[in-house]
Amino acid sequence: MRVLDRLRFSGGFQRQRRIIMKLHLVCGARIAHLSCLGFLLLGFCQMIQAGPTSTSPDYSVAVFANAPNGLTGPDSITSFQGTIWVGYQNKTQPTGGGGDSDIVQFSPSGKVLKTFKVKGRNDGLKFNPFDGKIYALQNEDGNPYLTLIDPVTGTMTTYNYSTPPAHGGGYDDIVFLNGQIFISASNPILQPPTKGAPNGQNIYPSIIAATLVGNQINTTAVLMGNATLTNITNGASEIAQQSDPDSLKVDPSGNLVLDSQQDGDLIFLNGPGFPNQVGYRLHLSSSSTTQVTVDDTVFPTQASGTIYVADTTADIVYAVTSKIFPPNSAFTAATDSNNYVGRIDLQTGKITPIITGMQGPHGALFVSSLPEVRLEQAASSGGSSGGLSGVFRVSRTGDVSQALQVFLNITDSSKADPSSSNTQQTVTIPVGASSTTASVTLDSKSDFKEDGSKQSVVVSIQPDPSYNVQPNILNTAVQAVSLPLPK
C-alpha cells in the first residue's frame, strides 16, 4: 500500500495536512515554508520507510537483532546450543587492517550475551561439533588466519597457515563433515577473461581440506577451479569459471555446496576428498536481466524453522520463519537488480524471491524448531574381546537444559551372508551438553567368526518425536579385519 493510501485509510492524511498548514503559518516566508516542509517530509519518510516484506503468507520476516552500539557490517552467522553467533566486520579490510571484527553471541531472543574481538576482517564463522569450538576465518582476500573460540570458557586460539595460499588470495568459509575440515579458497588469481569465462578462469584450488597441527594449518586441494563438472540442468560436462569461491554449506544429501558468488553458480561436490568425488554445477537465474549474485545458501532440514539473514548494509539480522519449508528445498541470500532472500529450484536454478526489500543480504543460517540430532563416526572401528566396535559422536542443536536419549540402529551383514541382523543401542546426551561420544558394538565376536573377515555395518539414528534427524549423515563402518581382532 502506498504512503498516501495508508494515510487516507488511517485518517492520518488530514492530520498531516493540518500540521503542514500550521507550519506554513509559523514559518511565514516562502523559503522558510519550503525549508520547514522539506524537513518535515524527510523525517516523516524516514519514519515510515518500509523494511523487508514477504511475498507469500507462508513466510514472515522480523528483526532478530540490530547491531550493538559501535558495530557495523554483520556477515557470517552460526549457532551453538540455541544461541546465535554473528560476525561484525566493522568496515575492516578483506586483506586485513582497518581495525578489529567483533563476534557477538546472542540469546535466542536477540539479547547480547558475549562479544569476542578478532584482528582483521571476519568472513566465515561456524561451530564445529567435533571439537565444540567456534571457527572464525579472517581476511578472505589475503593474509588469512584462523581463530578458534571456546564458547564455554571464552578462550581464543590463533592458527596460521603453514604455506601461503596456492591460489594467491584468502579463505572465506568453512564446514565440517565426518570429522574433516573443508574451506573455500577465495579471491583466486584468475586467467584473463575470455568469451567462455568473462570473469576469468580459476585454475587453482577452490576448496581445500585443512588439518590443524600445533598452531598451524596444513592444507590439501579438494576441488580445482577448472575441474570438470556435470551441469545439473542438461547433464553436459563442463568447466565452470569458479572465479569467486565464497560460502560453503552441506546439503541434506551430504554434498559440499560452494557458492561461486560473482558467477551465480552453486557447485555441489559429492564424496569430497575421496578419489571418486563428483562435482555438479547449477547456474542460478531470476526474472531480472542482471546476473544473480549469491552470498549464502541454506537447506532447511525440516518444515518448521527460521532462516537468520544478515543484512550487512542495514546492520540488521533478520529472522525469516515458516512452518512449511518445503522438503529438499534451498534458499539463498541473493542480489540481481534487487536485494532479497529467494527459494532456489534445484532442477533449473531459477530463484523466486520470498523476502524483498533488503539492502545487502549476506550470511544465512537455518535453525529448525525441533532439536536436530546428527550422527558421525568419531574414530575408526577396532576390535575387543567382545567383538568389533566403533566410536560415534551424537550431537544436537537447540536447548540443552535437559538430557536427550537418542536411539541408534545397527545393521550388519557380510559379503558371504546376504542376511542382516539388527540391534539397537541407546545413547544419552547429558544435561548442558550439545554432544557426546559412545562406543557402539558393530558385530559380536561369534558373528564375526561366522560371517568372515569383511563386515558391512550401517549405524543410523532411529527417528523419535523428541527430535529431528539430520538427513545428511548416514555412517557406514566398513573395515576389513582378520582374526585375532585388532586391539
Summarize the helices and strands and which ones pair or pack.
Blueprint: H1 3-10, H2 12-27, H3 30-48, E1 53-54, E2 60-66, E3 74-80, E4 83-88, E5 100-106, E6 112-119, E7 122-128, E8 133-138, E9 145-149, E10 156-161, E11 170-177, E12 180-186, E13 205-213, E14 216-224, E15 228-231, E16 237-239, E17 245-250, E18 256-260, E19 265-270, E20 278-283, E21 293-298, E22 305-311, E23 316-322, E24 330-335, E25 339-344, E26 351-356, E27 361-368, E28 372-384, E29 387-396, E30 404-414, E31 421-429, E32 435-444, H4 445-451, E33 454-461, E34 468-469, E35 475-480
Parallel strand pairs: 10-14, 15-20, 28-34
Antiparallel strand pairs: 1-26, 2-23, 3-4, 4-5, 5-6, 7-8, 8-9, 9-10, 11-12, 12-13, 13-14, 15-16, 17-18, 18-19, 19-20, 21-24, 22-23, 22-27, 24-25, 25-26, 28-29, 29-32, 30-31, 30-33, 33-35
Helix pairs in contact: 1-2, 2-3
Task: Kindly describe this structure.
- By secondary structure, this protein is mostly beta strands.
- It has three domains: 3-48; 53-368, TolB, C-terminal domain (Neuraminidase, 6 Propeller); 372-480, Immunoglobulin-like (Sandwich), CATH 2.60.40.10.
- It has four helices and 35 strands.
- The chain has an eight-stranded mixed β-sheet with strand order 7-8-9-10-14-13-12-11, with no helix packed on it. Strands 16-15-20-19-18-17 form a six-stranded mixed β-sheet, with no helix packed on it. Strands 1-26-25-24-21 form a five-stranded antiparallel β-sheet, with no helix packed on it.
- Strand 13 and strand 14 form a beta hairpin.
- Helix 1 crosses helix 2 and helix 2 (12-27) runs antiparallel to helix 3 (30-48).
- It is globular, with a radius of gyration of 26 Å.
- The model is unreliable at 1-48 and 472-487 (pLDDT under 50).
